[in-house]
Amino acid sequence: MTKIILTGANGFVGSRLFSQLEQRAEFQVVGLCRRLPVGRSSSKLNAVGDLQQANLSALLYGVDVLIHAAARAHIMKDDVIDPLAEYRRVNVEGTLSVARQAVAARVKRFVFISSIKVNGEADNGSAFCASDEPAPEDDYGISKLEAEQGLMRLSADTGMEVVIIRPPLIYGTGVKGNFASMTRLVEKGIPLPFGAINNKRSLVGIDNLVDLIIRCIDHPAAANQVFLAGDGQDLSTTELLRGVGAAMGKPARLIPVPAGLLQLGATLLGKKAMAQRLLGSLQVDISKTCEMLDWKPPYTVQEGLRRCFERSN
After folding, report:
1. Using CB atoms within 10 A of its CB, is residue 123 exposed (0-12), middle (13-18) or buried (19+)?
2. Catalytic residue, candidates 87, 140, 171, 299
3. 237-248 vs 178-187: helix axis angle to the nearest 10?
4. Is 61 one of the annotated active-site residues of the chain?
5. pTM for this structure?
6. Sheet containing strand 2-7, strands side by side
7. What is the pLDDT of residues 138-156, one digit of tens each?
8. Do 119 and 132 meet the contact criterion of CB atoms below 8 Å apart?
């Protein structure tokens, strides 16, 4: 039986992963979170406060693999004075504090959930690969890259195996952010000016990502590697919204407004970054992930969207 510690066990990714690991007889999992969620208690779930200050020695004793899903997530409108410093405090200092304690406890493998933002914000016509030179553009992406670099140095110095997974936009029941906003608009039947967008964006459904993380727990080829996650099927914003509507059983009301006109309007309104996510392309090449790990996303985008809305009903 593989003994696992999972940080961020009550987060969007962590809670789904924790549930799956609990159901597998070959794993013994303990979840860590900053505070226990209201109305939820489990002997396998522990509140440890801020990870950069937490003493995890007792919890890490005898653990084989630590999966680090805890993070300060990407925030669209950040109200802290110095966002980069706050991202570094949680995503870099917190990660490395946990990793050093894992080394001291002789944990064999550290699986780190990073972000495609380490690669950049737009693929410029060529899909991102795991071997690309990192080019983060925002504070969140910078903090994830610095955490990755610190983990790889720690691995080289100590021998603890490190596995890095970089997902693009993750969708599933309970997700927040742009995906949740779009699904609410489609559900309400509000006309949207995205009927003529010909971009291509990679996504990953929560169930596909969880399946990949589980594959990385003990696969020999995963040690000290970077893997990109994805569904293996790229969609335009138009196709995604239509897919959301189909999964919900409601037609997406899309008006074919030229992308250039939308880009101009967004720039004039100071929404250039948002326009990039809706109108620009970001594709990831998961061939390395599939080949090295003998892995295939178990669900198509259509199946992932259907599962997303089946669970929310």
Report:
1. buried
2. 140
3. 60
4. no
5. 0.92
6. 45-47, 27-33, 2-7, 65-68, 109-113, 161-166, 225-228
7. 999 999 999 999 999 999 9
8. yes
